[in-house]
Each structure stands twice: as C-alpha cells, then as structure tokens.
Amino acid sequence: MSATGIGAAVRRKEDQRFVTGKGHYTDDVNRAGQCYAYFLRSPHAHAKIKTIDSKAAAAMPGVLAVLTGAELAADKIGNLICGWMITSKDGSQMKMAPHPAIAHGKVNYVGDAVAVVIAETLSQAKDAAEKVKVDYQLLPAVADPAKAQGQGALQIHEVAARNTIYQWHLGDANAVGAAFRAAKHVTKLDLINNRLVPNAIEPRAAIGEYDAGSDSLTLWNTTQNPHVARLVMSAFVGLAPEHKLRVIAPDVGGAQNRPAGKVGGRALRGIPHRCPWPRPCHARGDGVRRRRQDHRSARQDHRQSRRLYVDVFVLGADLSLRHVALRPV
Predict the structure, then answer these.
(1) Domains present along the chain, CATH in parentheses
(2) Strands 35-41 and 281-283: what pairing?
(3) Other CB atoms closer than 10 Å to residue 305's CB: what's the count?
C-alpha cells in the first residue's frame, strides 16, 4: 500500500486544536452588548393554554422582553417545517399540522416552548422564567403510536384523522400479495423500535445579531446545514430575505442528525426586533439544566411499531426467505 492515493491512511488534521481546548463553538461566540434567551417549556404532553401572565417576569431585574406565541403570530413569523414532504399511497398530500416555534393556544408534547424570556444575563432570564404563570387546561394524551391509530383514539391534530400524517408504500403490492398467498408458511413478528435521545457533547446553542445599518441578520448556530437553515428561515419562517441572512456554522460538538432539525430557537432569531434596541441575542444555557432542555425539545427518534411478515418457500430441506413486508401494527 502506497503512502498516498487509494487505500492510504488519512490522518485527521483538526484534532490538535480540539484536544488542546482551542476549538471555537457557538457557545464560544460573544458579541458586544449581547443579551440572553431562556425558553419556558410545557411540563404537559397535551394541554390548552388558557392564559399566560408574564407581568411579574417582565418586571424582574434585567428583563428586556417576555415573548409568547401571540407575539410570533402578530409578527407573522411562519411555522416550523417538515424537511421532506411525502405523498400518501392514495395520492393525497401529507397532513402536517401547524408547528409554531412557540406554542400558541395549545401544547402538543412535553418540552413544547410556551414563552421565551430575554434578559441582560442568563441567570436573570432563568429567574424571570420562573415567574411566568401559565394556566393549562390538561387534555388526554396518547403515547403508544399503535393505539393512536385505533378507532375512537384521541385526536391530537384536527388535520390528521386517526393521528396519521401519511400512509407510505414502496414496491409492487400485487406481487408481494401474490407471493404471500403462494407461500408454504408465513411468519408474523411484531417489532418495536424504542424512542431515542441524541446526546451530543454540545447541546444546541444559537446567537443572532441584527445589524440596523444593513438591515440584516447573522446567526451562529450548532448546525451541519447552514445553507438550508438560511433558506428555511427566509422562505418559510419569513424572518428576512435570504440575501439579508447570514448563517455561520462554527465547530459543532456532535451531531447524530439532532442539530439538523429546524428547532424553534433558530426561528426566533428575529428576537432583536422585539427588544427595546437591536442587540445580539444568545440562546444558550448552562450545565445540567441546559442539557435537560435540549433533551426535552430536540427532535427525537420516535418509537416505531412494525409488524414483519416473512413468507417461506420450501425447496427440499432448505428454507429460503423470499419476501419481507413491513406493515404498521
């Protein structure tokens, strides 16, 4: 094997600065006069938001603003999007419910953001968030995806009957059906894929800076897709024209596809517009509490229930697996 070319070992060049503490992550970015954002999140899986009283929080020392879903709606900030639109097997479009960056009227999962506090320091923002009073009307919740599709199951989103966004299929259904009908034996097996929590070394962080002179926004973010993030914030969330947005991806402390999700914190880079004067705004936390927020709000790998059908063709003493079909339980 030669020292260069195909098959040659490729030594990493970036590790020296990482192992010596010289990496530069989003949390290392600090801008002059920056303020801090702290999100208040729902402890309930499903509930109506009756009222939000933020007067006491707004009067706390160092607090610049307390924003809710009502302010986002008033500013016409768009919803978070699904990055991959799927057409159901009957030809209909997927039935995706609106997903605002901050819940407005109802929360649909534990960790759904209900308010964000902007303050001079992170500690002031966290203290003020404890003063925000949210009056919830608890609603029944459903956690089992198989039961969620049953007749008479609780409906979470009005647009998605039987809690089904789409029904997707691949392959030739007639050919597969014929193969199973001709099989000597069919084995059925229920498989459950557990929920997962991506656990990167660096929890999500973001800092947005508004330049009043050029009327432009710059976002530093824990992302693997800065160009996609800019496109989404411009075309779908509607923060600003794309040429007025700049997204910078510094070093990222882990991925597992978790930073790729279009989370509410990114959509709220318009926060400087709502502050008393345009200032950089840092959405980050510290220690265990920061990681706990990340786990509660990040896009998760949801539990999946599948029923596996395998038909067997008998040939002499050998058993050959011929077809495998996955169907929702």
Answers:
(1) 31-161+196-308 (3.90.1170.50)
(2) parallel
(3) 16
In whole angstroms, what is the distance from residue 186 CA to residue 200 CA? 42
Q: pTM of the full predicted structure? A: 0.79
d(CA 58, CA 50): 19
pLDDT digits (tens, 9 = 90+) for 110-169: 889 999 999 999 999 999 999 999 999 999 988 787 788 888 888 888 888 888 888 888
Q: With the C-alpha atoms ordered 100, 101, 105, 111, is the resulting torsion angle positive or negative?
A: positive
Structural tokens at position 134: 């949210």
Strand partners, 113: 41
Q: What is the pLDDT of residues 46-92, one digit of tens each?
A: 999 999 999 999 999 999 999 999 998 998 888 888 777 888 888 89
Q: Report the sign of the C-alpha dihedral through residues 167, 173, 174, 179, in that order.
A: negative
Q: List Cβ neighbours of 126 (8 Å cut-off, separation of 6 or more).
A: 38, 117, 285, 289
Six-digit token pair at 146?
């198989």
